[in-house]
Amino acid sequence: MNSARNPAAMSGRASSNVSGGSAGRSADPPKGRSRLVSATVLMAAGTAVSRMLGFGRFALLVALFGNATRQADMFNYANTVPNSMYILLAGGILNTVLVPQIVRAIKHDPDGGDAYTNRIMTLGILVLGLLTVVLTLAAPLVIWIYTPESWHVPELARSYDSTVRLAYYCMPQIFFYGIHVLAGQVLNARDRFGPMMWSPIANNIISIGVLAVFFVVFGSGDGTSAFTTEQELLLGFGSTLGIVAQAIVLLPYLKAVGYKFRPRFDFKGTGLGKTVRLAKWTLGFVLVNQAALVVIQKVAGGATTGGTGGGLTVYSYAYAAYQLPHSLIAVSLATAMLPSASRLVAAGDLAGVRDETLGTMRLLLTAMVPAAVAFFALGVPLAEFVFGFGKGTSDAYLTGWTLMAFAFGLVPFSLHYLCLRTFYALEDNKTAFLIQIAIGAANASLAVLIVLLLNSPATTAVGLAVAHVIAYTIGLILAVGVLSRRLSGMPIRSVAGHAGKLLAAVAPAGVLAYAITRGFELWSSAKLVQALALVVAGLVAVVVFLLLARLFKISEVSQILAFVLRRRQPAPAPIEDEASIQTVIRPLREFYGETGAPEPRIVPDSHQTARRAALHPKIVPDRSHHGRPITMSAKPGSEMTTPVAPSADTPDQVGPEESPSAAAATPAAADPGWDDSGTADTAPGASVTAPGTVLAGRYRLEEMLAADDPTITWRAFDQVLSRSVLVHLLPPLDPHATEVLDAARRGAAATDSRFLRVLDAVYSDDTRIGSYIVCEYATGQPLSAILAQGPLTGLEAAWVTREVADALSAVHGFGLFHERINPETVVVTPTGNVKIIGLVIESALRPVRGEPAEGHGEAADVYDLGRLLYCCLVSRWPGGPAYGLGAAPQLGGRWATPRQVRAGVSPALDHVTDQILGRPPRHHAPQLDTANEVVNALTKVLGTADATADLERRLRQPIPRVRPDETGEIPLSEQPTGMMAAVDRPDSPISSTPDNNPTEEQVRQGPALPMAGSISPTSPESARSTMIRQPPPPDGGAPLVPHVRPRNGNGTPSKPQRWIVLLVALVVLLVIAAIVATFVIRPTGLPNPINNPPQQSSEAPQPPADPVLVPIEDARDFDPQGDPSDENPDEVPNAYDGEPDSRWRTMQYRNDPKLGGLKRGVGVVFDLGEEVPVREVKLMLSGKGTDFELRVPEEEGVNRPPMGTDKDWRVVAEVNNAGEQIDVPLEQPVTTRFVLVYLTSLPEEEPQRFRGGIHEVEVYR
């Protein structure tokens, strides 16, 4: 049962849960801080222990299977794919959809959310169980998708089958991952944070135990063989047992907090549909990441097809180390920034958001640049120390190389993460999703391209890391470009300069650190010496960096030190601002503890005085219905907000001690619904509510937006879900409270995202705080503020009205009606979408006396839709003046049509408007009586057109209007810098002069820029103004000048083109640098550590011996794509008979040197009789211009050559455009019995006739 349904039960709770004033704040913080410190220390300790055990698990894994072996990849595929599938199919839904619902129910349902939580747990168990069963049965398909094609060949059948069997045993982990998240979030909602942070320790302990048993029973793996059945059972079920334990250990804690699970199957009415729609961009984000991950894993797995290589395991271990500084520092800084940025967005202070983002970027760079240099300088020593145990000793350096490559991506990756949080603060998840598509596409495509270019199993993980770096660099450029436009410029040069100073300070430290570790390495390779080298190098590097940072005056270093050293910072003195400050610092303290959080930058608010003055406004309320302003919720954090728009015939009510936000309208004398019982001294709730008041221990009031009988509307902060909400306070002991709350509950049934949902409805019989309604909060501008600048285009007007009509049409079927649709209850968000305020609630709060002419229910909504379309087209309200708009003129006792008021209005839209408002419609047109009919009529006009982009641009580049004095001019000294009052006195005739209105063709195409409308400059319409929230002027005095984008000769905004050139150049340079850097890391001529691990030797290197000719025992032609599969087999002996005049020839191919486009290649397989280390191959070929490859079997130790496909052979050398005689020395000796000379492009024998041949082949060891 909802709390609001039992007023008696709520009486005590509503009183006890309201805190406000200094007394409340002075009494609560000590206890709250103590609890916060305790919880934070507990979580930090759990995380630290879990990470240490996790690295212990890594050490055992590399000791058993190594870093760069096929066995390591087999285990990692089977053990990590279930986690990937959980995140893909269930993780995103649980974290973005179900969990917030659980938290909300726990906090305000009378049963503590037990019933709702039981429903969600039941649904979660059913869905997770079904997914687990399906994916377990489909384990072969899932593993086939994630593994590379080279694993699907007969020669690796045993290894692949072993991986599939392991996956069967590991796939049940999906179910227990989900149970762990569900149970953990239930505990978190009850302020029990420790268990979920400590529970992974159980998993790590069991995993370490399982690996230890494996070592005792079976010893270390050989790196390439398939696991035995016993090994598969131990590894598979042992890994799953760890995840089971991780979930089960939470069950006693659930019982301890009083939660008992009882299955419930009454899922209907849980309201999950809209939440899923709201989370679609986040879910899309997850899908894009997982799609890119599939490509990465497939490419990485190809490196170990031959048994060893820098593949999936190397990449995974390096990525885990690379993420450590990001998760500790970048995530925490972004989390601390998000609440502050969100508050600035809500206040319309986009300049403040920009400054907050830039300041956090500088702090982030101060930590990430040194970390990146450390990874580059110490990547190999770090990897050899952490991952160089047992079998991993010989290949840990591959993880080090990959970590060095990742180092270049630490800064762009972390900065991009910060930009994402800024998009979330701007409530623009769509842009974040679109940028992630670009990143995912770039990462996947570049991974394939770079690995193909490198063509070396040893450097596959390095290539993947380079692709990751380039992709996130592209993503950062795109994100910064979009933010720069959204936030009126981002001075990136200053950030780049800061990064340059940091690099200058940390580079010498990195060089010294590398030199120190190199010196210790020459002394000894013992583990103790490695640890000592890293400690000494780290200490020296830190000291050098801090000294140089002080020399370069990098002030952010001290702030990072405060982060790391947990230095206590002094709390701000003024008690009255403590609640606001806690909004910023609480999330930071949750990550770092009470003593570790640096004090946030307090953003000055230019409206602080106005807000305090608005606490006790002298309000003359307005209870009229149509033709008057309604201000219940029309101010959700917009840049341009109008708390109450004065009526046309009433002077401003703002006195010398009042803020403009406290102004209200007097009623129209002729309105029969007017009731003047409200007075200035009895404003509801004004005597006891103030900023900082906390309702129900959850909703902290922050800013009063409007005061309109019978409610006061506040912007509040939900301390549970960390988001802004709207709170509508009713007067204490209001006799109509029950009716209003019932209406709010009925309105909560609307799940369409275009309605601002009702989140809570709480009854209170307290004499200080009345009942209240909590609603969703949306950033945007009320339509009245937009129309004050002029009418919309035909496309925009039709689209806005259709959106409202479409939303209403859906709820009309449930018997829900708005009955108060007008320009104040329709809001346009910064992304150009439409939000509707006050479904059902508006009519309950402000009932109409008498019978309205337009009727009730759907009839009233349809009539208001017609008036909404009318005012969007001409900026006049039928039945006005109201909402800052003039009255629509009447001709012959009926409203003039929009085309009669304003030239250029679309005839089609003019006709639709008359079909709604006409009584009867002109020209015998049918009346539109339902919202669905309005939707259909407007859809015929719009087709597939969408005005979202136009509205977004209109809000991004508003045209501010100011109120002139009697002369029509505003003295410079009196120009307002924060808010401007709204007046509308349209008492002059309507101008019918043609203007720049769109033609019929333009209506359908949708012009890009807002039109000025038909208002004459000398008309009183030109005096209309809106309340524009702006950040304070930089110099504190001069008014802000709106940012105007330069325009080209056609009048359209000019688009900067230089960034495109810079982006392309940067990508090209990064690709070249990545390839060059990879070859610098592994210079040509060094022994390949995959085939020949480095040996410690004190002897001087000996020059290589002269090559020795290896006799060829046999040979056969190789033509797997032929039909039949042979290519002059009788001539094969000529290729090694010692006679240069004889030869083996290919068939003659036409028109294309690449074997006529029919085959990938043909060749000859030479059998050496036994495995020998091949160093060089000499060939005599027919003609000039042959392309060929030298290949050896993928599978080692084979006694018969694989003849089925060329994919069973790996390339060890490649030559293009070869001459008639060529010597091919191999970069590293390859031990093999069979050598394939594979011709892929043939010389021209006759015009458009191509044939190749081999005269002689000699193989040397």
TrEMBL record:
Q: Which CDD domains match?
A: MATE_MurJ_like, PK_MviN-like
Entry's SUPFAM superfamilies? Answer: Galactose-binding domain-like, Protein kinase-like (PK-like)
Question: Biological process GO terms, please?
Answer: lipid translocation; peptidoglycan biosynthetic process; regulation of cell shape
Query: Would the keyword Nucleotide-binding turn up in this protein's UniProt record?
Result: no
Q: Where is the composition biased (Polar residues)?
A: 989-1000, 1015-1028
**Pfam families in the record, alphabetically?**
MurJ (PF03023)
Keywords per UniProt: Cell membrane, Cell shape, Membrane, Peptidoglycan synthesis, Transmembrane, Transmembrane helix
MF-aspect GO terms? lipid-linked peptidoglycan transporter activity
Task: Spell out the subcellular localization from the entry.
Answer: Cell membrane
Entry annotated with the keyword Membrane: yes
What residue spans carry the Low complexity bias annotation?
656-670, 1090-1100
Highest taxon of the lineage: Bacteria
Instruction: Specify where the region named Disordered lies, as residue ranges.
Output: 1-32, 616-689, 961-1055, 1090-1145
List all membrane-crossing ranges. 41-65, 85-103, 123-146, 166-189, 201-221, 233-254, 363-389, 401-420, 432-454, 460-483, 495-516, 528-549, 1059-1081
Q: How does it sit in the membrane?
A: Multi-pass membrane protein
Q: Cite a GO CC annotation.
A: plasma membrane
Q: Which protein, by its recorded name, is this? A: Putative peptidoglycan lipid II flippase
Q: Which organism is it from?
A: Microlunatus parietis
